[in-house]
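INFO  loader      accepted 1 record
INFO  loader      residues=232
INFO  predictor   begin
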Amino acid sequence: MTERISAGVEETVELSPERIFRYLEYGGSSPSKPVLEKLDELTPKARKLAQPRTLSWICKMGEAVNLHENDLPTPIQSVSFLAFGLVTVGPAIEQEAERLRETGRLLDSMILDALGSVAVSELCEGLAYRVFDWAHERALNASRAFEPGSGASHWPLENQRLIFANLHADEIGVSLTSHLLMRPTKTLSFLMGIGSEIEQASTPSSCQGCKRLDCPYRYEPKLPAYKTGRSS
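INFO  predictor   done
INFO  writer      dumping tokens
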């Protein structure tokens, strides 16, 4: 049993202020007035430049390509299904941010780059919630999303190869370099476990478990337990 949840272009990205402030390293405080004015100016531009695309595949454990049990994060080594996910917002945001930097508009470049990071983060979470819904519809549980190289995941970056071996990344214009970097850079990948053998995660994305407590990007959402209907 395999299933592709989605492969193609998403309509839009939300770009929520809470996430934007976090990526700009403001934590729980509000940015200065000049920064807020720049955000008002650049947020519509980021939405216009974003080319949100998602790709995913859910398969039985034994159907995954190039998989060895020890390759999996410890919490999902005995699950029944695996969900591979890949999302990108394309190259246009990073290209425009670089152009702004080269012309001396450093604040604009920094803010636009942060907006690109927010966009791909939101896209990734949205796809992961679709995996939650897929599992729930079959009376199964789903794990959090494990991203290769993430401090919270404790899952080595080398596992990018596993994800790319199981997805046709070129369908959404994404590639993996020999140094395990994804192109375009505003791209995220993940793996999730599904089955009755695990507990349902309350949210797919969290920095809980990462030892970098002082990281300005730290994200531990205070959300109720997962409920259906979130991934519309």
